[in-house]
């Protein structure tokens, strides 16, 4: 397993329970790309695919399955994080960029962003999260199959039109600035309410309406006892900005 992905999970696991953290902004370094996609040479020369030749098929399959599950778990740490995660993409955002941003809560991008679900061009089905999460983000299943089966690139405007992205900005700096502004706004709200909202939205996405309502009643039977509720209401009446304790 690439050390970068292990570290990513460790970071998000730590941020998830850090009471000083209330919202997270994730973006990429540099100006050219958030992710240029799979390094085919590295994957075939030193990755898990390079180690299966000559192995018994069942044993090779077991090793690959373990690798895939571990990789999935690293990226899923973004979704499992208790705190809202805002992702800002720019430039080339291919392959794993889609896996990562589908695990985030809010997606913003620069106008120069070029997306693609590239895995079929590399001879495999995307296996780190895109095929499981993208159909739950974008309402048009036809569009999802279009981009996943063809591996065709699509731009920021198309991503905004189908609801994959919720905001497009002139360049990376502008997108990051807007992301930070949104993160600050979320961080100023009750962490009990914010973290509960993320939990209930994700739960309800994966369950029936009836199950979601039942889970919400159980969750809020505890959360509604927080003094954050009375503090928020009193602040609204007094027309002042409330402050909330760490959670």
Automatic annotation (TrEMBL):
Pfam families: ECH_1 (PF00378). InterPro entries: ClpP/crotonase-like_dom_sf, Ech1-like, Enoyl-CoA_hydra/iso, Enoyl-CoA_hydra_C. Keywords: Fatty acid metabolism, Isomerase, Lipid metabolism. One of its GO terms (biological process) is fatty acid metabolic process. CDD domains: crotonase-like. Belongs to the enoyl-CoA hydratase/isomerase family. This is Uncharacterized protein. It comes from Glutinoglossum americanum.
């Amino acid at each position: 397993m690439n050390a970068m992905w292990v570290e990513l999970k460790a970071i998000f696991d730590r941020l998830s329970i850090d009471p000083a953290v209330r919202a997270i902004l994730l973006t990429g370094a540099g100006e050219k790309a958030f992710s240029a996609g799979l390094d085919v040479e590295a994957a075939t020369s030193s990755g898990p695919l390079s180690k299966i030749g000559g192995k018994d098929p069942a044993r090779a399959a077991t090793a690959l399955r373990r690798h895939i599950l571990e990789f999935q778990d690293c990226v899923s740490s973004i979704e499992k994080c208790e705190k809202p995660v805002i992702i800002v993409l720019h430039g080339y955002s291919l392959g794993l960029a889609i896996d990562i941003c589908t695990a985030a809560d809010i997606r913003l991008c620069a106008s120069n962003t070029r997306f693609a679900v590239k895995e079929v061009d590399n001879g495999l089905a995307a296996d780190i999260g895109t095929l499981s999460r993208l159909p739950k983000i974008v309402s048009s299943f036809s569009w999802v199959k279009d981009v996943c089966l063809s591996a065709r690139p699509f731009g920021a405007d198309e991503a905004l039109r189908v609801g994959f992205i919720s905001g497009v900005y002139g360049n990376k700096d502008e997108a990051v600035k807007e992301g930070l502004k949104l993160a600050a706004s979320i961080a100023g709200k009750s962490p009990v309410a914010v973290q509960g909202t993320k939990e209930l939205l994700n739960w309800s996405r994966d369950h029936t309406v009836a199950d979601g309502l039942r889970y919400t009643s159980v969750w809020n039977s505890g959360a509604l006892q927080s003094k954050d509720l009375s503090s928020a209401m009193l602040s609204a009446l007094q027309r002042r900005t409330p402050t909330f304790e760490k959670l």
